[in-house]
User: What shape does this take?
Amino acid sequence: MSDKYNILLNIKKSLGKFILDVDCELHQKVTAFLGASGSGKTTLLNCISGTLSPDKGQILFGNNKLFDTDLKISVPPDKRRIGYIFQEGHLFPHLTVEKNIRYGQSKTKRKNRYSLSQVLDTLEIADLLQRYPNQLSGGQRQRVAIARALAMEPRLLLMDEPLASLDGGLKSRIIPYLHHIKNEFEIPIIYVTHAISEAMALADEAFLLSEGKIIANGEPHQLLTAPSALPIANMIGVENIFSLPVANSDEQRGVTELEIGNQLLVIPFIDTEIGNLVPIAIRAEDIIISLEPNLPISARNILRGTIDGVDDQIIVSILVEGYRLSVKITHEARDQLQLSNGKDVYCVIKANAINVLWNAS
Assistant: This one.
């Protein structure tokens, strides 16, 4: 990988009782930092951007020192050429889309490495230029915010949970645009999120943050689907992560079937070969427990399993063909169904509640 993607982060920053203590090197085009709320993700981005000054350490981008306490170097934020994209976009409400975008462009006199029209075409927003932010959807506002960041010709893009304020449908439509940015512009990206699916779809490497410290790192697919990732998944809000082999994939029917032992799990169609492992995630609240297998419902998946634990927070642990599913229920449901260890039950899962943790394209 080119040196232009190399970033060294060796910094400490205290904010009250919270301490960010990060020491790592980034070498890939897109790096994701994952962690729960309060883990230090935004603090880290603010230190990189220069809007927050670390207490000590150094930040190197290629051969450029952005921050170094020993050498008393602290490059001002406006001199770092870093684009910063926030959750809400933060567009200027009194400016049109075009003026919002050109606000960033006007800050530089460098010769364009790519044209503004290329940015507009990539993000498909050329027809929005005369609108105001209050006339845009949430997804459109985020695309405009990305365009404004690109217009300043940054050497680095920071993305602070840019999809967090969007619903699931909008997220799935925005991720391809982020892929286009990754593929078409030679700009390294640091992407912070608590969503495993976003890291899987976009990142080349991932670091896991907990209480201000890095607790694991590696290639996203291997890191986040390994058995050791269960505590990580719980930390960032996904309780069930598995890699399952493809048994059948039928584009005409619009479904792909995954093997879970001797049973099948149906998901929406993905273009992949038989036998390939597909990483998936299922939230505990998206699984329903039934005592009967033949329910008159639309859910495509009814998996047979056995309860092997119920905790005080009403998370039921169910073994399905050697895989452990965590299922969230109410006290009332537990009592009504008389759930206890060793009881045979059926896990009901809608196909669209199963998140594929990659971008098949």
Notes: The chain has two domains: 3-235, 240-356. The domain at 3-235 is CATH 3.40.50.300 (Rossmann fold). The longest strand covers residues 240-250.
